[in-house]
């Protein structure tokens, strides 16, 4: 209704944006039939725009399938790589964990590359690099060649996964940005599930062939990414940064409900970026501003980099990569039974990420983070307890009960991760930074996550030998407890705000710190609403 009550025109404004809101003009008198016709036309355009934005976001999220598939498939493929190439435990840790660290090169260079050649072509470049690495791994005759392919795949994943979240945030309307920006997390979970299923499906092949087929199948998603590049448009915010205003307007016409909304969004983008002519952009290079940040940017970095770090050091990659090791420690013996149990984990992870998609723009980011971090803490502690009792107090619980407890705790951990820490990490890291810093700052946020993931993945087996697998999950439970405190003090609520409004919120430190009271009040209203709905049901 706002678009009917006011008009937005492209009109020069002295010392300001080319696009600005003007006073509402006198409304023409319309009869009932004309009002109905216009309302129907507006509804059709809105639905068309929503479908187009969703399609673009879905195609951009395909890069995340590559990351998810690699994580899932390596957990099973490593069993047969170890038997075929006779690698040591240390080589196994390096092979598994190096992807997270090497993807930093792709993430860090991806920010600069995306500013130079555009968001969508950076995603395409990442897919090509990944394809090359996956092909090398498939035909690797030795551990050295396998590592070369693994390193290339990591760079490609770093390129695509980082920039896809930025792209989706820049084309999405504020009301649906949380849902759409969490699509990459859905695709990661889908990729993990496909990796687990691939492991189970090809586990009957010979040791020399099985792991090669498992890794080779990962090339297929990158083919679809190549097709997607000819379907999705470039980011309108990137086009505005490049002063390609007509192209930016053409894209916004496809993803907006009305021409008035197009002009309003153009004005917001130009005001935020000011076509790179603001005083800050002239005085500071992007990286210098990130390394010597203002108080507002420092708060953004705390939230963005911190959430990425906690997402990984709470042990999610250890749970996914080494799930066969966990289940073997719980008492499962057969390789096929181990891989079948991992498929259950993959299904759980995928199902609960769908729950998050429906809630993230309704409940908000912060309440879901509380549920996620507290639930993960409980499940990690339960998993540590189950594995410890099985090892040191066999008489207290039956073997089958120990296995059931371990599977339930692992599935619970990935379920709570998927409704909060998993998708919201992507959402926050792509929406809290101002446009002039967004690509590089999002890449920098990946540093904490990737380093944390690499450290966990490359040290899990060695640390588990020292303090036991159960002991490792007690450590992860303690870190997860700290993450609850981090969410309370460092993560603001961004639900329903435009990217430009979020930037203003971080600029106002007092308002940002006081957000918790508002969030608590909103949560109370939400709970009361739920109780009423329940009683009515």
TrEMBL record:
Q: What Gene Ontology cellular component terms go with this record? A: membrane
Topology with regard to the membrane?
Multi-pass membrane protein
The record's subcellular locations are: Membrane
Q: Any keyword Nuclease? A: no
Q: What keywords tag this UniProt record?
A: Membrane, Sugar transport, Symport, Transmembrane, Transmembrane helix, Transport
A Pfam family in this protein? Sugar_tr
Q: So which domain of life are we looking at?
A: Eukaryota
- Gene3D superfamilies according to UniProt: MFS general substrate transporter like domains (1.20.1250.20)
Keyword Membrane in annotation: yes
Which residues does the UniProt record annotate as the domain Major facilitator superfamily (MFS) profile?
56-495
Q: Tell me which family the UniProt entry assigns to this protein.
A: Belongs to the major facilitator superfamily. Sugar transporter (TC 2.A.1.1) family.
- From the Swiss-Prot or TrEMBL record, give the protein name: Major facilitator superfamily (MFS) profile domain-containing protein
Organism of derivation: Triticum urartu
């Amino acid at each position: 209704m706002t678009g009917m009550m006011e008009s937005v025109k492209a009109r020069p404004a002295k010392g300001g944006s080319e696009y600005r809101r003007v006073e509402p003009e006198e409304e023409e008198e319309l009869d009932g039939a004309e009002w109905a016709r216009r309302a129907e036309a507006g509804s059709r355009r809105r639905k068309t725009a929503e479908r187009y934005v969703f399609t673009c976001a879905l195609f951009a999220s395909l890069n995340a399938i590559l990351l998810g598939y690699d994580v899932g498939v390596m957990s099973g493929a490593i069993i047969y790589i170890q038997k075929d190439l006779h690698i040591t435990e240390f080589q196994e840790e390096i092979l598994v964990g190096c992807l997270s660290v090497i993807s930093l090169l792709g993430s860090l260079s991806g920010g600069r590359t995306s500013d130079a050649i555009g968001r969508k072509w950076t995603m395409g470049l990442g897919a090509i690099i990944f394809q090359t690495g996956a092909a090398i791994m498939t035909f690797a005759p030795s551990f050295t060649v396998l590592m070369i392919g693994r390193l290339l795949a990591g760079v490609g994943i770093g390129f695509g996964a980082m920039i896809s979240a930025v792209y989706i945030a820049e084309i999405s309307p504020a009301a649906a940005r949380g849902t759409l920006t969490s699509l990459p997390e859905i695709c990661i979970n889908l990729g993990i599930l496909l990796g687990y299923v691939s492991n189970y499906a090809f586990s009957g092949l010979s040791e020399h062939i099985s792991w090669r087929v498992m890794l080779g199948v990962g090339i297929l998603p990158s083919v679809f990414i190549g097709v997607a590049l000819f379907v999705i448009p470039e980011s309108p915010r990137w086009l505005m940064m490049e002063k390609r205003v007509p192209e930016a307007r053409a894209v916004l016409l496809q993803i907006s409900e009305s021409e008035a909304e197009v002009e309003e969004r153009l004005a917001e983008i130009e005001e935020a970026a000011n076509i790179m002519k603001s005083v800050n952009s002239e005085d500071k290079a992007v990286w210098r501003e990130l390394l010597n940040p203002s108080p507002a940017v420092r708060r953004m970095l705390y939230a963005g980099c911190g959430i990425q770090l906690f997402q990984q050091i709470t042990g999610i990659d250890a749970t996914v990569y080494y799930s066969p090791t966990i289940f073997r420690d719980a008492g499962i013996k057969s390789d096929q039974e181990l891989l079948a149990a991992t498929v259950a984990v993959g299904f759980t992870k995928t199902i609960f990420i769908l729950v998050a998609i429906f809630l993230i723009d309704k409940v908000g980011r912060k309440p879901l983070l509380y549920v996620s971090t507290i639930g993960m803490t409980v499940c990690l502690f339960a998993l540590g307890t189950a594995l410890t009792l099985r090892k040191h107090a066999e008489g207290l619980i039956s073997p089958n009960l120990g296995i059931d407890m371990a599977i339930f705790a692992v599935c619970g951990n990935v379920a709570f991760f998927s409704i909060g820490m998993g998708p919201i990490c992507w959402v926050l890291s792509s929406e809290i930074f101002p446009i002039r810093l967004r690509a590089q700052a999002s890449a920098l946020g990946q540093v904490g996550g990737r380093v944390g993931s690499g450290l966990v993945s490359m040290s899990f087996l060695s640390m588990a030998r020292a303090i036991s697998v159960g002991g490792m999950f007690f450590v992860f439970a303690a870190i997860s407890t700290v993450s609850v405190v981090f969410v309370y003090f460092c993560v603001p609520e961004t639900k329903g705000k435009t990217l430009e409004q979020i930037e203003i919120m971080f600029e106002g430190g007092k308002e940002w710190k006081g957000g918790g009271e508002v969030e608590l009040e909103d949560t109370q209203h939400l709970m009361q609403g739920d109780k009423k709905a329940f009683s009515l049901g």
